[in-house]
């Protein structure tokens, strides 16, 4: 939970078929009037040694605040995520100017899935008539096989943001495979 109020609360969630080894909610609020955070979980792939780092984030509305939150996110990744560990960062980036993807690639080598597959970010907000590209999935250590944004009336009823889906494959750990997680494909 990032914000608790009389009628309830809101925050971030990660749903996974893999069990959590650990998780932590990181406060990235810049004021008490606009509580923000990101949830960092480490998922254990059963019967393997693979650990997937998953981060769900909801960034602030103002660009100055988002720049600071990008710095906080990158610092967390540099401090806690091994360079060869598979990593997924997803959520509402509120980045209508589309400037964050370049920064995340330069600082921590994250690729945005929709941009990678389609050459542009997904139109995801508002769901009834999407005109903004706010929601993203970034990865490192994965082969991006596909990315879709769902536009059906059902999805429009469930949220004011449309969902984005990505099909990913963890880079092979065989000696013949290029394991450099910073290499763009």
Question: How would you characterize the overall build of this protein?
Answer:
A six-stranded mixed sheet has the order 3-4-5-6-8-7. Strands 1-2 form a two-stranded antiparallel sheet. By secondary structure, the protein is an alpha+beta fold. A hairpin with a 2-residue loop joins strand 1 and strand 2. Helix 1 (63-80) packs parallel to helix 2 (100-108). The chain contains four helices and ten strands, in the order E-E-E-E-E-H-E-H-E-H-E-E-H-E. Helices cover 21% and strands 32% of the residues.
Give me the secondary-structure category. alpha+beta
Give the biggest sheet: 6 strands, mixed
**Fraction of residues in H or I helices:** 10-25%
Succession of helices and strands:
EEEEEHEHEHEEHE
- Alpha carbon gyration radius: 16 Å
Query: How far is it from the N-terminal to the C-terminal residue, by CA?
Result: 36 Å
Number of H- or I-type helical stretches: 4
Write the layout of secondary structure elements.
Elements: E1 3-5, E2 8-10, E3 20-27, E4 37-44, E5 51-58, H1 63-80, E6 87-92, H2 100-108, E7 111-112, H3 113-118, E8 135-140, E9 142-149, H4 153-158, E10 164-170
Parallel strand pairs: 5-6
Antiparallel strand pairs: 1-2, 3-4, 4-5, 6-8, 7-8, 9-10
Helix pairs in contact: 1-2
